[in-house]
Amino acid sequence: MKSIWNQPVQLPQKNRLTSNMRADAAVIGAGMAGILAATLLAQQGLKTVVLEAKTIAGGVTQGTTAKITSQHNLIYKKLIDAFGEEKAAQYAAANQNAIAKYKEIIDQNGIDCDFEQKNAFVYSLDDPKIIQSEVNAAQRIGIPAAFTEKTGLPFGTAGACMFPDQAQFHPLKFIAALAEGLTILEHTMAKEIDGKEIHTDGGTLHADFIVVATHYPFINMPGYYFLKMHQQRSYFIALENASPVDGMYIEAGGDGFSFRDYKNLLLLGGANHRTGENKDGGKYDIIRKTGGEWYPGATEKAFWSAQDCMTLDGVPYIGRYALTTPDMYVATGFNKWGMTGSMAAAMILADMIAGRKNEWADVFSPQRMDILPSAKNFASNAAETVSALADEIFMVPKETLAQIKEGDAGIVESHGEKVGVFRSEDGQAHIVTTKCAHLGCQLAWNPDENTWDCPCHGSRFDTDGNVIGNPAMKGLWGNKKLSRSQQNKEVF
Ligand code: FES
């Protein structure tokens, strides 16, 4: 399934790396964060090369709702309580400036990407106090937020926190325009970084500065990002003939619905869950059923899903990759707010690489040591990883191959090994290991997407074991397809 962003856009096609090369700066990853970082680095005169394992904007950028906003649910009260007013103000300023920077780039380059300034709202169905607290917190650090009961939503609320002059756009039209002028090498997977050298199958790229913008960082050590991030999935539909909401909306708390318009369509999303924890499926059904009640005359025109990296304290990791890698940088963990997060990252990293002081950088430092706000989420991530590793070793498969119906999947035993089996509509069994190719946790079936997903750090694989979402760098072993008659001869 494709999001509405794919449909009218032709992204530029670029060559792959076929020999050794030198650059001042290398950016790994051609999603929104990578393209923006490369744009700003190239603007400051650095010979910049982007390496992309697949194609430009071919990953999670396609799933975004493309809200360009500094309003990130109920974050400012939480930030002031956890980090103090100064750092909360850094976070706000970075994101407010990110909105202005989008406008500047779009205006300067005449980019036609349906950019519109709109207000953003976080609403509550039953608790005006949490909304008022967020309004107060945002005002304290310089955002002109206001409490309102007037929204464009199809139901009443207890109140909403409104941020004025935020924005929305078409992300792939924007990326397509910027990518034209950049040196990008597609189908070139960075496999290893050794000092200033990035090794790929097509050659080595030597760069004085390296930015890792691969959604989930692919180098486990140093950095240890696998200890401090998990991933979440969410689901979206685009409805025609639904009344416009004229703004961007998110429900307070993060488990509710998201709304925005795009031309004659309403984009409605929600049904969030940790990646790897959707064994019963039905997430699209939740959105469709609720959307149908709110907008009975509407027609669905597209559906798609998104995947986001979630940090321990709700703040992205932007800055030096690790204390031991002075010229290597990272931009990750945008916690569902990847448009402003990517631009803030690009501006901060461009300053750091140029040796300029950036006044917002502290709060985003990947090496921040504010332990308390992170402790609870660290413990919960660690418990999830231990449980998924233990499942891989100790969980005994309960199903047999014969019990798996067409269009469904399960975990069975074969030759003393646990394998995941998806049975396609023609009866063929698609067999892969259930051991994640990243760090070995047990994968779980996602019936909404027909994928094998990892609860530990969110890698995803298709039914034949190919990687469709990192941090895993390689596919699953197994990748065997057996017809019905072949299945009778195998040991299951
Ligand atoms: Fe890390 Fe699966 S994504 S073990």
Walk me through the structure:
With 492 residues, the protein is an alpha+beta fold. Among the domains are: 1-66 and 170-228 and 312-369, 3-Layer(bba) Sandwich (FAD/NAD(P)-binding domain); 401-489, Rieske Iron-sulfur Protein (3-layer Sandwich). It has helices at residues 32-43, 75-83, 85-109, 128-140, 171-180, 283-294, 338-354, 361-364, 372-394, 484-489, and strands at residues 21-28, 48-51, 67-68, 116-124, 146-148, 159-168, 183-185, 192-194, 197-200, 203-212, 229-240, 248-251, 258-262, 265-274, 299-311, 317-320, 328-332, 409-414, 417-423, 429-433, 444-446, 451-453, 460-461, 467-469, 480-482. A hairpin with a 2-residue loop joins strand 18 (409-414) and strand 19 (417-423). The mean pLDDT is 93. FE2/S2 (inorganic) cluster is lined by residues 226, 436, 438-441, 454, 456-459, 471-472. FE2/S2 (inorganic) cluster (FES) binds next to loops.
Unreliably modeled segments: none
Strand content: 25-35%
Q: Can you say what the CATH homologous superfamily of the domain at 1-66 and 170-228 and 312-369 is?
A: FAD/NAD(P)-binding domain
CATH topology of the domain at 1-66 and 170-228 and 312-369: FAD/NAD(P)-binding domain
The major sheet is characterized as:
9 strands, mixed
Query: How many strand units?
Result: 25
Q: Report the average pLDDT across residues.
A: 93
Name of the CATH first level of the domain at 1-66 and 170-228 and 312-369 = Alpha Beta
